[in-house]
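Revision sheet: structure tokens.
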Amino acid sequence: MIRLTHIFLLGLMLVPSSLLAAPTMEELQRQIAELAATVEKLNTQVAQEKARQAKAKPAPSVAELQETVTELSEELEEINDRVDKNETHTATDRVSWYGDLRTKADSTRQEVMIRQAAVIQGMGAMPMPTNTDFAQDNGILYTTRLRLGMKAKVWKNVKFNGRLLMYKNWGDSSGAKVMDSWSAFTMDGTNSGNTTDDGIHVDRAYFTWNQIGKTPFYLSIGRRPSTYGAPTNYRENEARGGTPSGHLVNFDFDGITIGYKLHQKTGVDGQTIRFCYGQGYESEYGNGTLGRETEVEDTHLGGFNFDVWNNGESWLQLTMFGAKDVTDGFKGVGVMPMIDSNGDGIGDSMNTNGFITRLSATTNVGDMLIGGIGYGRRLENDVVLFGSLGWTRTLANNNFNSMGFGGLMADAAPIFDLNGTPMDPSDDFFTGQYATEGLGKDRDGYSIYVGTQIPAPMGKIGLEYNYGSRYWAPFTQAQDDVLGSKLATRGHVGEGYYIFDINPRMFLKIGAIYYDYEYTGSGSMLGKPQKISDVEKGEAFSPFPVVDTAWDAYASMTVKF
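Predicted:
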């Protein structure tokens, strides 16, 4: 009995010391094996003692032995739990997930004018008999947006970031819209801001290699974080989401960033300069070029983004970039209102069956330059003020879209012969000629964007205003305003909203946007922008429906996790 007691005491002395010296997975597993063996041995000894005492008087030492066995079993179970947690932690450490879910309800109204015309040989532009005015009301439109972010530490100076996205309106998973405006065109650059189907799309996927050669240089390649940059992140109630100014660029693209963290040399908070390059259009691969030769060139983008400073309370940002060989379209899908029934390249009959068309560019229409400066500041009383100035220049050539959409900020309308038959390819209804206006001319556009956020009970109040001139043409088509990007508007836009902070990871936003358009074609680089007042009087025409004024009242609930 004394010998057995010594064994128990020795076991109890050894177990705690081994546990304290078990920081690694292998040592924890070794302890489990040792403890399991000890418990098995003790159980055997307890059974032997019970059998011996069954023939003699019961001894208190049996209860003590049983208590020791119970304590060791509990300790073994605790170590098993620790091993399980470490194994789980090791697996999930490779990729960390986070995200947000937004459900939104919009009620919209648009004052619409249909002012289409056919250019008749010898007669000029003749208004179509279908021209009309009406108010387009949508009492309620529900949408759901799910964003799943992921990140992983690849190495001590290499990391991966990605984001998956689903954005759909309720009751619709078709993935294609009827193309009645430039906002109804689903393509690579706008997938994150245009409702498609209930599928998951890759919104972002890139790696970043920091401190290259122990210098402030870094390299990042992949699908870029180019949406919801400052100052548009304020209205989203989130941190800065993209590198370029959100006033100029809210557009998904694939590319490369080479950056230099100047703040490591200058000591100025957040000071960083970046050169960004991307490809906006691939003209050959996937476009059937094995069956025909194409003269369309790829579209390339490149420029600089300079964070002069960013200390968390205030920031100053400069952006300047250019687009080379801009095309008259992008790869995407849509339901065209008209179809070409005779193969002459001109839509001549209604697409009553709703055929979905794979769209692609037909020509290069010129180059573009975009630049801007933005500033924001949070005051001591938590009031936020921001302002941004934007400028665009289109450098047009003499090319244009043959379907009648025009060239870069220019019109090119097909000319028809009344003596021809529209759907008879042997009868020349389309003369092969175009009436053009503004081809080859360079155009400058500008925009201003200002706003504030003011602390209020349970949250904050936001007020914003932006204006775009006649030839204003930013890359903000992925902004998810349901009536089209407000920052692409050629005219005036005002927005007010109230954000209720329900808890640190959940908020309710109620607001309204009012659009007052001055020129047609907001969000498009094709076609000459016409004065809305001239369109209303029938002195100017547009291949697309023209919106004079519009409003969007909305409420959304966002949960972050």
